[in-house]
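Standup notes, structure subgroup. Blocker cleared on the alpha-D-glucopyranose input:
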Amino acid sequence: MNLRILLASSELFPYSKTGGLADMVAALAKSLARSGQRVGVVTPLYAGLPRKFPEIQRANLHLALPLGPETVTAEVWSTSPAERLTVYFIDQPAFYQRACLYVENGVEYADNAERFVFLSKCVARLAQELPWQPQILHVHDWHVALSALFVRSERDRAGQGSHAPATCLTIHNVAFQGSYPAQKYALTNLPWDYFTPDGAEFYGRLNALKAGICHADFVTTVSPRYAREITTETFGCGLDAVLRARQAKLVGILNGVDYDEWDPERDACLPQRFSSADLTGKAANKAALQKELGLPVVASTPLFGTISRLTDQKGMDIELAALEEMLPAGFQFVLLGSGASDFEQAYQVLARRYPRQVAARTGYDHPLAHRIEGGCDFYLMPSKFEPCGLNQMYSLRYGTIPVVRATGGLDDSVVDIVEDRGRANGIKFQEFSAGALAKAIRKALVLYAEPGLLDWYRRNAMAVDCSWGRSTERYAAVYRRLAGR
Ligand code: ADP
Ligand code: GLC
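Run returned:
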């Protein structure tokens, strides 16, 4: 059965991206369309997009929606990057044409509630008005989670006569909930009946993610382990009880990798392409990366890398402390990251203190991210929690051995030698501490000193299939169940 699915996300690669959300939604959309489904994606028209992507054109579709006491208008633009796939861009210049997506100079935009309640309304409206009549509306993260509530209220209003689609919400990170003072609920223009403890209200505030969890017909998250974790107090960020109560409609589906974008055999960003059959290109990429970073070009010195948002989630504090402890052992390390300025500065200071061992690049640099994956020997990802994580899966493909903390999707996607000798492809540690990470780095150095073993790990890593096929099938199974209700 072919399905008609409308996805919605506040970011979408290659048009906008601050993290893995953009990659995941783009790859899922593409993979669903390839498997024969009719797919649309709704996302904002951020600054500069029509100039950068001239194929994005006006779609002759206009929206005028209430937002509290006002009526806000938007124009829809669209493009069709693949067969059966259309991307719809919401053009509301005052809301979306800004320097950044959510946060500028470390400060959240003051009208994020307005911006994303409006986006959620546009999504719900398109879900009901697009001529190809989506059967499923699949929304991602808090920014568009309220769409599920808007669809629910439409169903309640229209009763049996409703053409509203079934809804699915994917939680990419329960730490971000879209929590605002209660008076912002007025932006929804819905009756206050939905502002209850089993709906949009959470401890007296509007909580967009919770509204989505309560009102979507189904909820998924991005790895099986994270699906279990978020039902516990430690990982649930306050929503664990809400999620426990809805466990029957919650599953974890591991993200895949879009190998059109992340494959060392085809990667146009790499100085040299390579495959597991011939790793000479990887050695050349390492030398080029060391040179680019101003580090001594020495093949025998192990090179570690991290590419990340610089936040507490990613374990930057324990990484800094573990590097401090372990750098005297003589390896090199490169960071590419942006985020909290104290972390940015701490890495810059480390690079100044160890100029022959540490390079820190702050800012966002997509091609450099590829070159780091291509050139490093090890990839460090010591996250405190990690819903899925993509870089460890990119690393596997690039033969860059992941060193990860066993949490969320990191635990689900990396195999340590103590779990399975035959399939070992990375190093895992359990405790969230600098000491445990330092020990894992020490293990990596031992591995590096055993070329035969390192080669075995690399081949295992590069052979892992993280493509979207299986996960797409799991999402399609969810959609089919919802469509058949
Ligand atoms: P999260 O979404 O929590 O940030 P993921 O591992 O799922 O973590 O995805 C992060 C994505 O963002 C990866 O594609 C990674 O390469 C990319 N990324 C993160 N920081 C940067 C940066 N400073 N420059 C380029 N790419 C980055
Ligand atoms: C979130 C999570 C990350 C996940 C990504 C894509 O940003 O922090 O772990 O990989 O979403 O699902």
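Discussed briefly. The CA atoms of residues 62 and 75 lie 5 Å apart.
Next: hand off to the docking folks.
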